[in-house]
Amino acid sequence: MAVPEIVSAVSRDGRLESAGDDRPVIWWSLTKPVVAAAALRLVEQGRLALDDLLPGRPYSLRQLLRHSAGVPTYGGPEYHGAVARGGVPWSAEAMLAHAKADTQLFAPDTGWAYSNIGYYLVCRMIEAATGQPLGAALRALVLDPLDLADTRIVTAARELEATVWGNPSGYDPGWVYHGLLIGPAADAVRFLHGLGSMLGETAWQAMRASYPVGGGLEGRPWTETLYGLGLMTGKWGDAGRVWGHSGVGFTVGALYAFPDLPGRPIVAAFAPGSDEAVVENAALRRALDDET
Predict the structure, then answer these.
(1) Is the pTM of this model over 0.90?
(2) For residue 23, what are the β-bridge partners?
(3) Which of 23, 188, 220, 230 gives a 20 to 30 Å CA spacing to 271?
């Protein structure tokens, strides 16, 4: 099978219009909305609290989910060098030590900083509340209720080899400490379409209630940027409001709902490379029904 430049899927009026390639793609940070949805389901069940401070910490689950907790993230030359060398992923304890995870960048809700460590902490809360590893917890809380049988957490490099663009460098998903999903683009669309009906109205409203991040992003369709609970939100010019998420690794992905456009389209787009503008602009073209 030929390797495509872009894999996409779109729904309009709640019906999947185009599924495209049905092979799995790597979701990268599109995993975050799924993690957030699982956490909110546990809040609805009374097994997690959204606004209580974590034991011994100055921040809450809500603040972790919207990146306003002041928690640092992992990365930097040492981390990226270790990934590039293809080494065994650090233990979580080593990662937290490298990132100085106990350092507060700012007091909660006085700033905003994207934090993969924040989502690592949320995943540990989900595992503790359910008594299950993350993959099983996401399966029970989100994936099975939305009938996403072909989407799953991966934990080994060989599992990425079956994705559309493969795993040419032998990347180990253990470097993604908050979990990494793979699945068809159509499943990403089904997830975002079903999210509002799976969650109760209070949780769904909370997920979309957003912290202001900034204005436009050069080369990308964003004209206003905000962040909800696991959802990137804002405006894409004349297309109006959007919510969803983008993700980047050695491939890129974008998943967005366009509630102000005719048919309320939801689009997922994935491509090789590391330029999020490519898939965000592709998603916008599909939403506008422009194949050019």
Answers:
(1) yes
(2) none
(3) 230
